[in-house]
């Protein structure tokens, strides 16, 4: 429950510190006194966005703090999930600096507005006079049914399943489109593949052919150079091997005088062996080099084919041609295997559809079951607030396709008077009737959702007299199980509160500011008497106020 609300430097409020009690808390005040300002401040700690410059004094920051007793509401998992410190008295704080920047804290831990809003939805339900319009929307009507039927977890499962089903539908459609496109290109792809496959392409072939081409074109020059080299090394009159042999002989003659010469002689002998090996290899290479005009023609023809293919397909290498061939082959195979692939995707899609449908049927069955019970309970509560002949009928019809809420279309049909035909509620209910229907529905929803606090913000539009008393009675009953804060203009409702606050304006120098005070018994009598008859109430109004408070 909301135990305390602190507001500093907000709109017409310099500083307020309000402590709320259990049960039914009443807030009254003249129109324009600032009740909506207090609600606006409360909305900020529940995650609403800042609008305009909400400063009483622009030189200071605005601070709103709410103190909530949450020990009985099983909220520890939410705090753990969002990495927040769980405290039985949780403090939510919102700060708005002079430059308009906003920060939010839960137990002194900074949080995002999304987290703040999620927590706020678990703490307080604010029902304003404008909220009666919600009852005309299918989304709200389904929300009520799902809240009473405990369908929340089923809806999460359903929506996840629906998302998976839609993805499988899209995947199947995309695959069919790709296959159709591939099928339309099949003849062209086959032509390309057959052409490339015919050439038996190898990734490194071009480089090897270009090297062989160079060798064949320069065979005569190569042979000449090889022969000249072997001649210089071994065959000329003064060749390298002969000179090395002569050098070794001369060094051997002086080896007895210079011992170090032995190592050098050995190195020359090794060089002689190495040169002989080189001469043999050069001779072998020279014999293998031939001027083969027919082979050169073959190489030139093959290279010409490869160059033509690259130019035709606007590619730069044989490696890219190989990649093109393999890619086209995969496209051809994809078309060949299309039936099995499509069949597999269709099986997956159908399985996801069946799973989604089964969950939707469970949700629908829960709604139908609770709808009957809800009709009876709403009619009972409407009877308590003076609508003894009111009837509510909830019609659920199956949709042809899923939507985010399942497979149901819902409509609330309503009749306020005996003998009056049931019609869509927005067509036949007056403003006062809508307020009472909404109050009856809300009293069911908040009870099932176990919220700590509900706030009724001037929902007494269109009701008065005895009906107002009965509306107050219903609020009083609701306050037995939860904290209720009611902002009202009706003395009949105001008299039901266990705590009664008055919002008022006062002059502070040249500034008007909003304030609030908890009234004592005498002040309550005076306030309710003024609500009955206006300023300066007479004795009759005072006595009437006393009777209302006693009742």
From TrEMBL:
Name listed for the protein in its UniProt record: DNA repair protein RecN
Keywords per UniProt: ATP-binding, Coiled coil, DNA damage, DNA repair, Nucleotide-binding
GO molecular function term, any single one: ATP binding
Gene name of the encoded protein: recN
Function recorded in the entry: May be involved in recombinational repair of damaged DNA.
ATP-binding as UniProt keyword: yes
Start and end residues of each RecF/RecN/SMC N-terminal domain: 1-510
GO cellular component: bacterial nucleoid
GO process annotations (BP): DNA recombination; DNA repair; SOS response
Family (UniProt): Belongs to the RecN family.
Pfam families per record: SMC_N (PF02463)
Coiled-coil intervals, chain numbering: 165-229, 261-288
């Amino acid at each position: 429950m909301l135990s305390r609300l602190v507001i500093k430097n907000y709109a017409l409020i310099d500083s307020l510190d309000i402590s709320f009690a259990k049960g039914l808390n009443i807030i009254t005040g003249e129109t324009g006194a600032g009740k909506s300002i207090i609600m606006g401040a409360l909305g900020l700690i529940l995650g609403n966005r800042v609008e305009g410059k909400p400063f009483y004094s622009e030189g200071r920051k605005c601070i709103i703090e709410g103190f909530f007793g949450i020990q009985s509401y099983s909220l520890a998992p939410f705090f753990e999930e969002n990495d927040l410190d769980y405290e039985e008295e949780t403090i939510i704080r919102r700060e708005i600096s002079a430059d308009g920047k906003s920060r939010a804290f839960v137990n002194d831990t900074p949080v995002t507005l999304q987290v703040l809003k999620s927590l706020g939805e678990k703490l307080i339900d604010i029902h304003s006079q404008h909220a009666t319009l919600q009852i005309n929307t299918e989304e709200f009507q389904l929300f009520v049914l799902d809240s009473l039927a405990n369908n929340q977890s089923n809806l999460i499962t359903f929506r996840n399943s629906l998302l998976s089903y839609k993805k499988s539908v899209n995947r199947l459609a995309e695959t069919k489109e790709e296959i159709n496109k591939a099928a339309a290109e099949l003849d062209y792809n086959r032509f390309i593949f057959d052409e490339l496959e015919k050439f038996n392409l190898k990734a490194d072939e071009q480089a090897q052919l270009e090297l062989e081409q160079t060798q064949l074109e320069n065979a005569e020059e190569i042979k000449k150079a090889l022969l000249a080299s072997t001649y210089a090394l071994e065959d000329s009159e003064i060749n390298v091997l002969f000179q090395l042999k002569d050098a070794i002989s001369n060094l051997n003659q002086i080896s007895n005088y210079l011992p170090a010469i032995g190592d050098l002689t050995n190195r020359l002998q090794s060089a002689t062996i190495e040169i002989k090996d080189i001469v043999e290899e050069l001779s072998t290479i020279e014999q293998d080099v031939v001027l083969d005009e027919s082979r050169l023609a073959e190489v030139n023809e093959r290279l010409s084919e490869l160059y033509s293919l690259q130019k035709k397909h606007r590619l730069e290498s044989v490696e890219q041609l190989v990649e093109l061939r393999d890619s086209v082959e995969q496209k051809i195979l994809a078309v060949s295997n299309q039936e099995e692939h499509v069949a597999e995707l269709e099986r997956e899609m159908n399985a996801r559809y069946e799973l989604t449908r089964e969950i939707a049927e469970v949700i629908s069955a829960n709604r139908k079951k609770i709808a009957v019970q809800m009709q009876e309970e709403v009619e009972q509560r409407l009877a308590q607030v003076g609508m003894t002949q009111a009837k509510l009928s909830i019609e659920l019809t199956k949709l042809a396709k899923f939507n985010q809420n399942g497979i149901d279309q819902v409509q609330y049909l309503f009749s306020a008077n005996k003998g009056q035909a049931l019609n869509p509620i927005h067509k036949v209910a007056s403003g006062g009737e809508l307020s009472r229907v909404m109050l009856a529905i809300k009293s069911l929803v908040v009870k099932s959702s176990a919220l700590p606090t509900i706030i009724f913000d001037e929902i007494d539009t269109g009701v008065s007299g005895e009906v107002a008393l009965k509306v107050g009675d219903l609020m009083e009953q609701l306050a037995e199980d939860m904290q209720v804060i009611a902002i009202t203009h009706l003395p009949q409702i105001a008299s039901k509160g266990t705590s009664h606050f008055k919002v008022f304006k006062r002059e502070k120098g040249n500034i008007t500011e909003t304030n609030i005070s908890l009234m004592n018994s005498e002040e309550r009598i005076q306030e309710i008497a003024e609500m009955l008859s206006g300023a300066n109430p007479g004795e009759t109004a005072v006595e009437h106020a006393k009777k209302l408070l006693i009742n």
